[in-house]
Design brief:
By secondary structure, this protein is α+β, with helices and mostly antiparallel strands. It has a single domain, classed as PknH-like extracellular domain (Protein Transport Mog1p, Chain A). The protein is built from 8 helices and 9 strands. It has a 9-stranded antiparallel sheet with strand order 1-3-4-9-8-7-6-5-2, sandwiched between helices. Strand 7 (203-212) and strand 8 form a beta hairpin. The longest helix has 17 residues, at 95-111. It starts with a helix and ends with a helix.
Length: 265
C-alpha cells in the first residue's frame, strides 16, 4: 500500500512502516476448521465396524513443532542491528508511533476509491496486519539520494499463515499490476512489476511499483519480502531516486533479519 506524499509528511516513518508491515503480513486469511462431525469415514473402516471387526489403531501423528513466540523487544533488537546499503543504521520507530501509523493507514484506505474496482480487494487485504501479530519496524534515510529504506518484521502464532497469505497476495498482485487510487481528492496511478528475487527465505516475493503522484512526480517503491517459519521480513526502498538495482540490498536485509530471527528461535 502506498500513500500520497502529503499524508506521508504527517507521520512519515510510522506511515511508511505501517504500510510495509501490512505488506509483510500480506493481509489475513482464515482456514475453516475441520470437526469430527464433518469428517467422512473411509468406506473400508465403516464396513469393518459394521461387521464387528476391531478397528485398527490410527498412526500416531507427528508432533508439530511449536513456533517461536517472538517478543516485540526481540524484533526491535533485530531491526536495530540492520543498516541500509550506505551503512546507515536503521532507526527503530517507537511502538506508539507504529500504532498511530497503522490506524491512519486503515482510515486512509477506508476513504480510497480504487479503479478498477476489483483491485480494491488487493489494496484492502494488503492493508491488514494479521490479528495477534508481533511486529517492529525501522527506517533509514539515504545521505546521497532521495530514498528511504524501511524494514519490518511480523511474527504470527500460525507459521503456515504467513506463507499462505504471501502466496495469495502474489496471486492478487499479478491481477492488479495497473490501477489508480484517489484519496481525499488526490489521484495516484500505479504500475507494478513482479520481480524475481532470491533470498534465504522459504518463500520470497519482489515487486517494483512506479507511481505518478498528483504533482506529476514519479515515485518508485521497491519491495522484497521473505517468509521463514512464522516470521516475515520485508525491506522497502522508496523515493524518486530508487532503482531496481536496490533489490540486492533489500534481499540482503531480509536475509540478515531472518538469520537473526533464527538464532533467537
Amino acid at each position: 500500500m502506498n500513500l500520497p506524499m502529503n499524508l506521508r509528511r504527517s507521520a512519515p516513518a510510522a506511515l511508511l512502516i505501517s504500510a510495509a508491515l501490512a505488506l509483510a503480513g500480506c493481509g489475513q486469511t482464515t482456514t475453516p476448521a475441520t470437526s469430527p462431525a464433518n469428517t467422512v469415514e473411509p468406506a473400508s473402516a465403516a464396513a469393518s465396524q459394521a461387521a464387528g471387526q476391531p478397528r485398527s489403531a490410527a498412526p500416531t501423528p507427528t508432533p508439530t513443532p511449536t513456533p517461536k513466540a517472538f517478543t516485540g523487544a526481540e524484533l526491535t533488537a533485530i531491526i536495530a542491528g540492520l543498516a541500509d546499503g550506505e551503512g546507515n543504521a536503521l532507526t527503530v520507530v517507537p511502538a506508539e508511533q507504529l500504532e498511530k501509523g497503522i490506524e491512519i493507514s486503515k482510515q486512509t484506505m477506508s476513504e480510497a476509491v480504487i479503479s478498477p474496482a476489483e483491485c480494491a480487494v488487493v489494496a484492502d487485504s494488503n492493508a491488514q496486519i494479521p490479528a495477534g501479530s508481533t511486529y517492529a519496524g525501522g527506517v533509514a534515510k539515504s545521505t546521497t539520494v532521495q530514498a528511504l529504506t524501511v524494514v519490518t518484521l511480523v511474527a504470527v502464532a500460525d507459521q503456515k499463515q504467513l506463507g499462505v497469505n504471501l502466496e495469495a497476495a502474489v496471486a492478487k498482485s499479478k491481477k492488479c499490476t495497473n490501477f489508480s487510487m484517489e484519496i481525499r481528492g488526490q489521484k495516484i496511478t500505479s504500475q507494478t512489476e513482479i520481480l524475481p528475487v532470491k533470498t534465504s527465505a522459504d518463500t520470497s516475493f519482489g515487486s517494483l511499483a512506479t507511481q505518478t503522484l498528483p504533482s506529476g512526480q514519479l515515485m518508485t517503491t521497491l519491495l522484497v519480502t521473505g517468509v521463514k517459519g512464522n516470521l516475515s521480513a520485508s525491506a522497502v526502498a522508496t523515493g524518486p531516486d530508487v532503482t531496481r538495482a536496490a533489490a540486492a540490498t533489500l534481499a540482503r536485509l531480509v536475509d540478515e533479519a531472518l538469520a537473526q530471527g533464527a538464532t533467537r528461535s
